[in-house]
Amino acid sequence: MIVPTVQGEGVRLRAFEQHDVDDLLAGYGDPEVQRFLPPLPVPFTRAQAESYISDVAPSMFAYGGGLYAIADPETDRLLGGVGLDKMVPNRGQTEIGYWVGPWARGRGVATAAVRALTGHAFHTGMARIELLTHRENAPSQRVALATGFQPEGVRRGVLPNRDGGRDDLLAYARLAGDDPGPVERLLPDLPGGELTDGVVCLRPLTPGDLDFYVALHSVEDVVATTVPPIAPSREEMRRRCAWAQSHWLAGDRADLVIIDVATGTPAGEIGLYYQEPRTGQAMIGYSMLPAWRGRGFPTRAAQLVSLWAFAETGIARLIAGALPTNLGSQRVLEKAGFKREAYLRSRLPGHDGRRSDDLQFALVAEDLLREGARLDG
To answer: Which positions fall inside the N-acetyltransferase domain (predicted)?
Structure first.
């Protein structure tokens, strides 16, 4: 069967060829590719690579889909793969998947390949293309958003993993009439990857922060202000760290680590939770390790997050809560410019089925503008 060549920006999609064996072997042997493609046999052998090129990939075209090699248009070297599968002809629907070898990452290869194949599929009659990706695969989610795929929800337990369990996948889709992208994000990346005032630095929470996160959320008074006030398990904290990038890309929360600039040590956390995009309201919350308390770090962190949120997002109003007995947290919010607005009775779940009251504070963009004008004057 003759496989059509599809041209993309900086890539060429073509049939797999015998000279791709070594790169296919290296690509499918990469730990990141194996992690997010659990159906791949481990180890992936040369015989399997040769069979993939001679039999598996060509057979996909016979079923109406197709597996394309992503090749460098100048050298023809294999960079990765992209394909269409799970065709539903009467719906004009298919699913797209992709991988990129470690030697070709960071160059926009996957984005270019997905954009090219998506355009080709729509041109040849498809009406809807789905894209499923693991919640912990943030680079793949970035590709989806960059190529116009819109988030639609979570497919629970759809992917068998290598441990005998099942993983959720995030579902994205693009229709033939949709804008080709990128999809506008509610919470953009931080400028330069961090926020800092020279004393504290805020950077996104990552999987590598697990031990710090476990230590922070084992502190008694941090647990007491958790909703509900129950210490999370280590697995729950692992997921929180591993899924932080996904939540940020989805626009529902931004989890940040507060770093002591003088020592480079994680001292606490601050999170922004975008509860109401329609009204432009979000909430912040923060926790500090005991050794770094009394230095004004959470106030500085709250100010940095507030300035970023009002300047770079559609957020117009920030709220925060504090237990009536938590005078320290109330002082943090007041110093950061938040105004007390309400006393909410029995708002929060407490210990042993009891409820706790909550003091509500708020900050709006105009407050910062007025404070800036006052200081300039």
So the answer is: 11-176, 200-370
Kindly list the distances between the CA atom of residue 26 and the CA atoms of 52, 121, 329, in Å, as whole numbers in the listed order: 14, 28, 52
Torsion of Cα atoms, 197 then 201 then 203 then 208, to 10°: 170
Last residue of a domain, one of 175, 203, 235: 175
Give the chain's mean pLDDT. Answer: 94
- Whether the pLDDT of residue 1 is over 70: the answer is no
pTM: 0.92
pLDDT of residue 285: 96
HSE, side-chain direction, 13 A CA sphere, residue 141: 22
Domain match, 227 and 370 both: yes
The answer on 111 and 139 residing in a single domain is yes
Do residues 27 and 93 both lie within one domain? yes
- Among the residue ranges 29-33, 228-232, 243-247, the one predicted with the least confidence is 228-232
Interacting residues of 308 by C-beta distance below 8 A, sequence separation 6+: 190, 195
Distance of CA 260 to the CA centre of its chain: 25
